[in-house]
Write a structure and sequence with these properties.
Elements lengths: L8 E4 L5 H11 L3 E6 L14 H5 L4 H6 L3 E5 L5 H12 L3 E4 L5 H4 L4 H7 L4 E6 L14 H8 L6 E2 L3 E2 L6 H24 L3 E6 H8 L1 H8 L18 E5 L4 E5 L3 H10 L14 H6 L1 H12 L4 H10 L3 E4 L3 H4 L11 E4 L9 E4 L23 H7 L23
Parallel strand pairs: 1-2, 1-4, 2-3, 4-5, 5-8
Antiparallel strand pairs: 6-7, 9-10, 10-11, 12-13
Length: 406
């Protein structure tokens, strides 16, 4: 077995979500990810938790979710001695990833130009809220703020309640995916040309990219407003509907699907109604079409309608809770949920999410649980000729707050 990035070494200076997720993706594909953390506190995400037992061990749920497969080393980057060591480590590394505010790594003498001087073909990825240049480059970028600034919140939510953010940190996660893709492409380019690369990933760019269909709709004259659960296309049959005991989501977007839907709810006669002759007419008379459907849906449960419409070949799903979603019978077939023992301070196995694709051979896998703070310091430093008894590198701890990450 030889996963795609076996033999690739990554120095990971990232914190919180977006950067750690990018490097975890690469770790599941075989990369040796060395996570560099501040002595004493480490990644801020170690301390974001609702579980006091996990919090006491610096293994908060957010940290566990995006740091599997890595080795943790504690180094104080404000020590000149440590910075010399990092440059030595960079000589054997293929990739450096960081998500400090722009300029932080340059001031430490560990920016792209500094590390390129010791490793000319290094691939260096910097993740930030707004990019490395421009008037907003120094502004802190977090998922919620970027969702607000990008316009995403203005089209998310119900008119009665106002804008809302997406319930999960989707821009953090998408930024991690984009960074991992960019790093993979740079490594492929290096294999072809022998040249390294500097990669600039901005969460704002990622957010706008995820909204490309909505942006195209607006540029074509569409009205980007709050539509609740209705699709941005305004198609009335692509929305949530009420059954006798709850709601379900329905996606019916073409004429054949509409015929199947009306036949299944025993209202095929509505196809002869001139108000519903084509999609522009159906959009204009959407409330009337919706009233016909909800009258029928009210006669049975959301579960029964989901089963009936699914059997008819339509895209439909009951609105499940997160615990219910995690019990979906499809998941055991997807190699997504992996149980693993050995996380520091955690009794028993934890469930980790694998990288979400499968391969016939050498696909993504998680080799080790998320690391305890500094768990692998002695092991990694020994690889660079620094013994545990000689190690002075955890001294000189700074009293200042860590640099803000995105």
């Amino acid at each position: 077995m030889s996963r795609p990035f076996k033999g690739i070494r990554i120095l990971d200076f990232t914190r919180v979500i977006s950067g750690p997720f990018a490097t975890q993706l690469l770790a599941t594909l075989g990369a040796d990810v060395i996570k560099i953390e501040k002595p004493g506190t480490g990644d801020e995400a170690r301390h974001f938790c609702c579980n006091p037992d996990l919090l006491a061990h610096g293994m908060a749920s957010g940290f566990l979710s995006v740091n599997a497969g890595k080795r943790s080393v504690t180094l104080n980057l404000k020590s000149a001695e440590v910075r010399d060591l990092v440059r030595t480590m960079a000589r054997s590394a293929d990739v450096v990833v960081e998500n400090f505010r722009p300029g932080v790594m340059d001031r430490l003498g560990l920016g792209y130009d500094d590390l390129k001087a010791v490793k000319p073909d290094i691939v260096y990825c910097a993740i930030s809220g707004f990019g490395q240049t421009g008037p907003a480059s120094g502004v802190a970028g977090y998922d919620g703020a970027v969702q607000a600034l990008s316009g995403m919140m203005s089209i998310t939510g119900h008119p009665q309640c106002g804008p809302t953010r997406v319930g999960a940190p989707v821009i953090d996660m998408c930024s991690g995916y984009v960074a991992a893709l960019a790093i993979a492409s740079a490594l492929f380019r290096r294999a072809c040309t022998g040249q390294g690369q500097f990669i600039d990933v901005a969460m704002l760019d990622v957010n706008l990219s995820t909204m490309r269909s909505a942006i195209a709709w607006w540029q074509a004259g569409g009205d980007p407003v709050l539509r609740g659960n209705q699709a941005w296309t305004r198609i009335p049959t692509s929305d949530s509907f009420h059954a006798s005991d709850g709601q379900f989501m329905l996606t019916v977007n073409n004429d054949e699907q509409l015929r199947i839907l009306l036949r299944t709810v025993q209202r095929e006669d509505a196809l002869d109604d001139p108000r519903f002759k084509d999609w522009p007419s159906r959009i204009e008379n959407g409330l009337a079409l919706r009233a016909i459907l909800e009258e029928r849906f009210a006669t049975d449960t959301a579960h029964n309608w989901e089963q009936r419409l699914t059997d008819a070949g339509l895209a439909v799903a009951g609105i499940r809770t997160l615990p219910e979603a995690m019990e979906h019978p499809q998941l055991p077939y997807r190699n997504l949920l992996l149980k693993m023992d050995g996380a520091k301070g955690v009794d028993g196995p934890i469930t980790l999410l694998n990288t979400p694709f499968m391969c016939m051979e050498d696909g993504p896998a998680i080799d080790r649980p998320p690391p305890g703070l500094g768990e692998h310091t002695a092991e990694v430093l020994a690889e660079f000729g620094v013994s545990a008894t000689e190690n002075p590198l955890s001294r000189h701890e700074s009293k200042k707050k860590p640099a803000r990450a995105v």
